[in-house]
């Protein structure tokens, strides 16, 4: 089946099998290696992307359903100021170890901050709950996202969460 969509700002037309997942398509044929396959059931969040600006699990999204959509992987955030801030905060606050969950965490964190601004620690943890990290224990990730929230206006709350 033919499908046409935009991948990280570039028009794509692909001939795909009906069972091909978005993750397999973008990793295998378009070298978007930030899309990681973990559970392949949509539970772990390692394959998180944006479809038309909304969070989606690429492992359970069929490529044939993408016709006319805009897909953004982590590679598509080049030059995005908020994503640059998040990447730096993850580094500074030790929010990554093996890096497998990191792309999905970054996209989720970007979405949370963009949509909701500053959050309490509990709300931040709830917002990140759909992404599983097996290495860090989440403390560094939560501190990193809280630090990045600073850019969106709630410096005091972000500093308090980052200090915990």
UniProtKB/TrEMBL annotation:
Designated name of the protein: (2Fe-2S)-binding protein
InterPro entries: 2Fe-2S-bd, 2Fe-2S-bd_dom_sf, 2Fe-2S_ferredoxin-like_sf, 2Fe-2S_ferredoxin-type, 2Fe2S_fd_BS, Beta-grasp_dom_sf, Diverse_Oxidoreductases
Leader sequence segment: none
Domain (2Fe-2S ferredoxin-type): residue spans on this chain: 1-77
Entries under PROSITE patterns matching the protein: 2FE2S_FER_1, 2FE2S_FER_2
Taxonomic path: Bacteria, Pseudomonadati, Pseudomonadota, Alphaproteobacteria, Hyphomicrobiales
Cited SUPFAM superfamilies: 2Fe-2S ferredoxin-like (SSF54292), CO dehydrogenase ISP C-domain like (SSF47741)
Gene3D superfamilies, alphabetized: 3.10.20.30, [2Fe-2S]-binding domain
One Pfam short name: Fer2
Keywords, sorted A to Z: 2Fe-2S, Iron, Iron-sulfur, Metal-binding, Oxidoreductase
Organism: Rhodoplanes tepidamans
